[in-house]
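Researcher: Checking consistency across runs. Here is LysR family transcriptional regulator again:
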Amino acid sequence: MSQIQLHKIDLNLLATFEALIEEGSVAAAADRLHLTPSAVSHALGRLRTQFDDPLLVRVGGRMRPTPQALLLADELTPVLRGLRRALKPPEPFDPATTDRVFRIGLHASPALIVRVTKTLHQAAPNAMVEWVRIKPTNQNDLVDGLIELLHIGGPAHLVDGIQSVDLPPITFFSFARKGHPAAKDLSADTAAQYRYLQDAVEDTGGTPVEKEQRLLNRPRTLGAKVQYFPLVGSMLAGTDLLTTQPTFVMEEMWRTYELEVLEPVAAPTNFPMRFAWSARYASDPGNT
């Protein structure tokens, strides 16, 4: 048998061959493929020419495969099955039944995390959402599909393969315990008398507030750093520490602990924010 030239093979012929092998007759194969018997007979003729073998011969009123046809069937069956899997349209995404895990990288915001989790579980009760801490490798994780959505602050450069949507810019304020002496007149001089609380941020370039203070030459002294953001409220309420945070992350905390809200002596203004996702998974129904 001469070597087969794949670029000349009609995949429809292979589907016809499969039907002939499994059905054992031209008429039954035609019925299965919704073709006329003459069309199937014509396809069988082309297959015989292509493979230089009769492939199926009539024996006792039924088409019987030749040894070459049996060998072809053994090889082609898993290939055709794989093709069908590859070409099958994706299953429709149903929030009501999905049990997917959605991973979201978000700057600490307990109130927002609670609201989003509640809303997601109302629409997708069997889904799980995992809140991933912001860190320098987040963008690479996003491209690789390890997280679905990433909250990005600042004029950060987006690596290739990421799409994003801009959000309204955010504002920073300083916060202190109720009755804090600095609340009467928070200036650069008075602020320098107190130490600051910072929630740990895995950012090799420093926090936006630190960058702004260096820019304005208004250095601050850290008095404490916490790894767990919800500790910020109780830490402020029980000490003379100050902190400067985006308003959206303190939305609930400053009310709960009756904190003083102060104009910061150094903080970014109109700080840009965006949500980003991997372009590779932009059309995934669940991500959409």
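Researcher: Does this match what you'd expect to see?
Model: One thing to look at in this run: The two ends are 51 Å apart (CA to CA).
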